[in-house]
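hey can u check if this looks right to u? its 188 residues, i copy pasted from the old doc so theres a chance i mangled smth
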Amino acid sequence: MTRGMWQRSATWVASIGFCLGAGCGKDTEVSSPSRAGSKAIPPPVEIVGISGIDAALAQRRGRGVLLNFWAVWCAPCVEELPELVETAHEYRERGGELILVSYDLMLPNLENEAVREKVTRFAQERGIDVPILIYDAPDYDAINAHFDLAGGVPATLAFDRHGKLVDREDQQAKKARFVQMMENALAR
């Protein structure tokens, strides 16, 4: 096993353990966003590294951005998505944006295109119409260090119009918290 593969596997095990402790393994019936059932325009879904995430943030300078780290296999992540997407829709006209960063390539032995199709289908079924970036790298320590993440999902970061981190939530949140984060991102 190469060093990169070992790091990815070790980080995966640690993240799954963290996620299970937070309830990601619970069988949860999750409601869809209010737009579910409508034929939403498929979201752009790209497989990227850290530079791709940084580029997506840079493209949105001048706007407030919520950057959410999640995965389809994480029940708390899926549970918070409807309120997160709803908040993004409500703030679009004021300059608010949402970018979802999927950790669905975290699990070993997955094919990039199969994961992209799965995430795209998941988004379409739930009416999610915001950009989705699927993070792919040999290990997750780099992204955790780059964004100062605790390592588990969900996590949401708020960036102001200048690209400065102004708020963060390192666990599942509700709509009121997302509204507060978006307000903080747009206030500066």
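The CA atoms of residues 29 and 79 lie 8 Å apart.
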